[in-house]
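Reply to dn_fold:

You asked what the input looked like. This is it:
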Amino acid sequence: MLKDHSQLQLSLSPYQGLYDAIIPADHLLRRIKENIDFSFVNPMLRKQYCENFGRPAKEPEMMFKLLFLKKLYDLSDEALISSAQTDMAFKFFLDLEPEAKMIDPSLLTKFRKTRITEDILEEMLKETIQQALDKKLIKSGTIIVDSTHTLASVRAKSPTQILRDMSKQLRKEIYKTAFELSELFPEKPSLEAGLDEEIAYTKELLQTLEEGIETCGNKKIRKLSQEMKKLLEHLKEIRSKDDKDARFGHKTATSTFYGYKNHLAMTEERFIAGISVTDGGAPDGQELPKLIEKAKENGIQVAEVIGDMAYVSDDNLKTCGQEIALIARTNTAVAAAANGELKEGFCFNKDAGMLQCPAGELSTRIEKRSASNGNTYLRYIFSKVKCRKCPQKENCYVGKSKAKIRSYSITQASEKNLERLKFEESEYFKERMKIRHRIEEKNGELKEAHGLRRADSRGLFAMHLQMYFTAFTANIKRIVRLEELAME
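and this is what came back:
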């Protein structure tokens, strides 16, 4: 049950004067408190509470401010509550008396899981943009787009190890609660067994136990068996049974990461106006229409988009149309995609500078060739060993090839792209591209100052929550900074 303001105890503490004596006028939290209106929080979260029943809940605005402090100073829940108990600047920002006792850290977890939704996260980001617009801090219709990766909070495992862990978990639960079924266990493969043997064992285990699992009535055992069946269907994609939403992505042609991608649309004034969170393997370019739409919904009159070569595609050019200028360089592979030349599932990975197949594997090298008709083309070479083992090879343009070298060739710049390439050579284009570095600086700030380098928790929604609160924090800091610059 949510308290209303009449229920809140607002009696003045005899120690209230400590805040004026201890916290300087230029302290960051005092500046934020004086410049930012947090009164939107309670109305925004009211729908998440029962009006008439239940124990009185902690005020949402205070809980929200705690999560803001967590990102502002990159603290764990425990460190945050410990600091808030003794740091007078924290208590001043939270509108608490100096002698007030802080909440248990577990309430932060409950607040995140039960009170915050994706819609609320969108409203929260929109509020920062609206406050910036009201203060006339956003003047342009330009957004700069890019993605930044976040490492998963768990370690990636091989499919063999994931299956082995899951079957071990099932056997352990059967030993505990349905021992009679353990007599049906088939012989386990050795620790040196490969993926094929582990898959065969898992299928045999599930098939042998199927009838017994249905009749034993144990919900946990039944749930584990169902999860294992689903795991077998998507084994190639999953790399952790603890975080099934995370995926491998590429930072360069030779390095990968395991986790998520945060796709951002930032205004020219360095406010984050749109966010899309995906697994680490998602291509950057396909998120552009969503980022433009979100920036518009948040109040930005988008007239120009600045990005890198991953964002030039036929779909994105259609999305921008005549109303939005797309300031991004065309890569030969992306240009081929714009002409409809790339087969389904293939895309250009701009971080690695290589072509990526439907299974997420990168080409290993590029060869530039000349054809007999005078045209030039790029030949992307894929690993023959990986193609041979790939479960998607029968439906893949490269994988089903019987050639000695598995390759994909792309003809360079067609007539259709000449106008686009000419635009990219203009002085206007070159001048506008000079501000693209601003979003890379913002990505660095989010990672280094606010903990976006690694995920706080597991799952796609947890990554959504972390990214949006990090962006909210960065936007609040930006509002305060620009307000101070305007006063100088």
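The first strand starts at residue 142 and ends at 151.
Hope that clears it up.
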